[in-house]
Amino acid sequence: MITELRLVNFRNFEQLKLNSLEKENFIVWENGRWKTNILESISLLSNNSITWLSFDELVKKWEDYFFVEYLSDNWNKVSFSYTKEKKKKQYMLNNKKITKKKFNQVTNKCVIFSPIIMNMMYLSPSLRRDFLDDLLKSSFEKYEKIMIDYKKIIKHRNKTLKSIADWKCSKDEINFWNEKFVEVAVLMYKYRFKIVNFLKSSIENTKEFFSGKIENIEFVYKTKVSEENAWQDIKDYLIKNMDRDIILWRTAIWPHVDDFDILVDWNQLSHFASRWETKSMILWLKLLEWIFIEKMTEKRPILLIDDLLSELDDSHKNMLLKKIEYYQTFISSISLTEDKNIIMI
What we know:
By secondary structure, the chain is an alpha/beta fold. The protein has eleven helices and 14 strands.
């Protein structure tokens, strides 16, 4: 558990030190007063992000570096700094330099709640893919590197497809990138199916929100790849759709275009369920996220709830606050809550 947090030149803060942090912490102030920046610093120390800003954008204006650090209840001091001019990142444990790999091993992961999450089933499929990928990145040390490699290979393959379309190289030159693509895509699916199978087996528990009105609820992963035969499925599909990819100049299939849905009595959740029931389901997905992370890492994640409570009705708010009571949480809010640890900024 984090007991102390310190920021230097981070976003709007020149210096900030928060002491005596507890299991449940409310960061309270009016809108536009930088509450999210505190949560962002914690997410950064967990190898995640709320804002997805670049490191340069996290440095306070007119400064060249930022520094963030927390002290845990086991007296570990975990620090991260970034220098803008040299583009240098530095990871530290108890004032000694460590590798990023070691840094990721010692920090607690975080689960992020934000208002946009409540629209995950209605908006772009990219939100749902990000949900899966962020979860896997927090649960498995190797997954982030696999994602980086995958994006690089996609970029090179697409560039080669364009060169073929422009008659600058022959079709044979795509074979090398096809092999690389199959190799890394199979690795991604190895992890994707881990979380997909977990969600499929766990989603049944959400029936309680429908008060006995439904018979069936199902998590459906939309992909053209089978878990048992992923390598052959990908290879065959690349060969079959080669001409289409050349015309489009892009790789139009596999992990970066997959999606998922939740079916309620064989109908799409967003079409069948009420807004209240859909919100309940999404909160349950986030609940399953932190259960999975805790199971895989053997550490309780930190929960970061950014201005979400104002988006929830009292029943959903009470449900969420009851579920999170065993985890350390940092909740940004514009209003005070009685009998809580209030952090005024």
